[in-house]
Amino acid sequence: MHSLLARQIELCTGPDGTLDQERFYALVSSAYDDDARARHRLERSITLMSEEMAELNAQIALEARQTLTRYILESRDALITLDDDNCIALMNGPAAHAFGIENPRTVMGLPIDRFLDPKELREGQVSNFSGRHSAGHDVPFSATFSVGRVDGSVFRIIALRDETERRAREAALEVAKQTAEHANEAKSSFLAMMSHELRTPLNALLGSAELMARTKLDETQANYVRMFNEAGRLMMAMVNDVLDYAKIEAGQLEIEQHPTSLRQMAREIETLWGPHAETKGLTLTIDAAGLDQDMVIGDPTRLRQIVFNLVSNAVKFTVTGGVTIRLRSKTEARKCHVIIEVIDTGVGIPADRQTSIFKAFIQADSTITRRFGGTGLGLAIAKSLAQQMQGDLTVTSQPGQGSTFQFEAHFEASDEQELVIYEANGPNEIARPLQVLAVDDNDLNRQILAAMLDLWPVETSWATNGVEALEAMALRAFDVVLMDVQMPVMDGLTATQRVRAGSGPNRDTPIIALTANARQEDRTQCMAAGMTDFVTKPISAESLANALIRATHAPEAAHADAGTQPYLHALA
C-alpha cells in the first residue's frame, strides 16, 4: 500500500477502528487536486523550457548563418556558395571581380554553369579549369570544393583563385629562363668562335716563333724570340682560361671517368714546367713516396689541368727556392683518397686573402698582376674542377715563406696498368720516312705546318678542303692524315666519315685532327667521326711529333675509342 494512502486511512479511522469515509474521500480528492496542480506546473515549466531552447537554437543557427555569410562576404578569397540545384546562393566581391561582375547580388539564384562547369569540381581536391568571364573570355582558375552543414542544412562552398597573374609570372619566368639560356648559349658560341679565331693566328705566330728559335740567332734576336713566344703562350693560356670559366658558369663542363695514372700526370707537369723552372734557377721535384695507388678512375685532362694551374702559379710566383709536387693516397676497399700538394717557397698569400683568391678575377695583391701577369681565373677554375670531382682545393700560406695548395678527392682504384705513351724527346725520333697528307684551308697554317714537317723525314701531300682530301686519298695510301676540321667546300669531319665508310686504301689510316676548336665536345665529335687523335692549335713541333709517333708506333692505341683511352690527349 502506498505510504500516503496508509497515512490518510490512519487519519480517518476512529478509536473504535471505524473509517470516516466522508473525511477519507475528501482527503483523497484534495491529494488528487494537489497532484494535478503540480503536474500542470511541471508541464508548463517543460513547455517554457522547450520554447526557450527552440529560441536559443534558432538564435544559434541564425548567428551561425550570419557568421558564415559575414565570413564569405568579408573574405579576401573568392568564395561562392551553391544551393541544392547548383544555383548561386551567395557570391562575395573577390569572386564577382574574378568573373567581371559589378554587383554580386545580380547573380544570386543563377545557375553556376553560366560561369564554370560544376563537373570540374572535386570535393576536397584542388581543381584547375577555365571559367567564363562576363566579358566573354576564359579565365584560368584553381578551386577547392567543400560540403558542410549549418543548422542541419547542407551548404556547398567553392573557393576560387584567379591564376591569371601567377601564370603570367610563370610565363615571364620561363621567357626569362629561355632568354638567359639563349644568352648563355650565345656567349658560349661566341667564346668558342673567338677561341677558334684567336687560335688560328696564334698558331702562325707561335709556330713562326718556334721555327725561328731553331735557326741561328744572336743573343738579342734569341731574346726577342723568347719574349715573343712567352707572350703568345700567355695569351693562349688566357684564351683557355676564359673558355673554361665560361663553360663552368654555364654548367657545360663535364667530368669524365677513365683510368688515370697519377705518376704519369705528375711527370707530364714536370716535363712541361721543369725547363721553365730551371731558367729561373728553381727546382721542380716530384715526391710520390706516399702514393699507395697510382691508377685511379678519374678525368685525366681535368686533373692535369688542376695541377698544371697550381704548378704554373707556384713557378710564376717563386723567385728563389723551388716547387714540390707531393702525391699521397690511402686506399681501402677500392676507394682511394688522393691528396696532391703543390708546395712552393714563393711570395706567399696574406691570411685575409686566402679565401678570395679562389674567386674569379681575384689575386692576392693587385701588384701581382702587373709583376707576374695572368687573368686571375686559374685558381677559380681549379677550385670549380675540384668541387665537380666531389673534392676540394685549399691553401695554407705565410707571406714571404711560401704556399701549399692541397687538392683532395676520392676516386675508385683501377687495376689497369699505366699506359706507355710514345712521345718525342727530339725531332730525330721520327726515324722512318712517312707519307703524310696535310689538309688545311689556311695558307699561313699550311706554311707553318710545312716548315715543321720538314724537320723530319716526311713526304707531304697537300689539300685545302675535304673534297681535295678525298680525291688525294682515293689515289694512294698514306701513313698519316693531318686533318683540319673547319674548312670550306667540305669540313674535316665529313671527309673523315666518308673515308671510314668507304673501302679505299686509307680506310684504316690514322687521321689526326689539327683544330682550333678546343672544347671537349669538339674532341668527342672528332673521335665519333673516325679520327684517331686530336691536337689543338696552336701546334708545336713537339706536339706534332708526338702525334705522328702515336699514330705510327702505337696503332692499337691510335685506333682505340677515345672514350677508353684517356691518354690520347691534345698536347697543345
UniProtKB/TrEMBL annotation:
- Residues that the record marks as modified (4-aspartylphosphate) are D484
User: This protein's superkingdom?
Assistant: Bacteria
One Pfam annotation, family name?
A: Response_reg
* Catalytic reaction(s) noted: ATP + protein L-histidine = ADP + protein N-phospho-L-histidine
Q: What is its EC number?
A: 2.7.13.3
Do you know which InterPro entries this protein is assigned to?
Answer: CheY-like_superfamily (IPR011006), HATPase_C_sf (IPR036890), HATPase_dom (IPR003594), His_kinase_dom (IPR005467), HisK_dim/P_dom (IPR003661), HisK_dim/P_sf (IPR036097), PAS-like_dom_sf (IPR035965), Sig_transdc_His_kin-like_C (IPR004358)
Q: In Gene Ontology terms, what is one molecular function of this protein?
A: phosphorelay sensor kinase activity
Q: Tell me the SUPFAM superfamilies matching this sequence.
A: ATPase domain of HSP90 chaperone/DNA topoisomerase II/histidine kinase (SSF55874), CheY-like (SSF52172), Homodimeric domain of signal transducing histidine kinase (SSF47384), PYP-like sensor domain (PAS domain) (SSF55785)
Protein name per the record: histidine kinase
Organism from which the protein derives: Candidatus Phycosocius bacilliformis
Tell me the lineage of the source organism.
Answer: Bacteria, Pseudomonadati, Pseudomonadota, Alphaproteobacteria, Caulobacterales
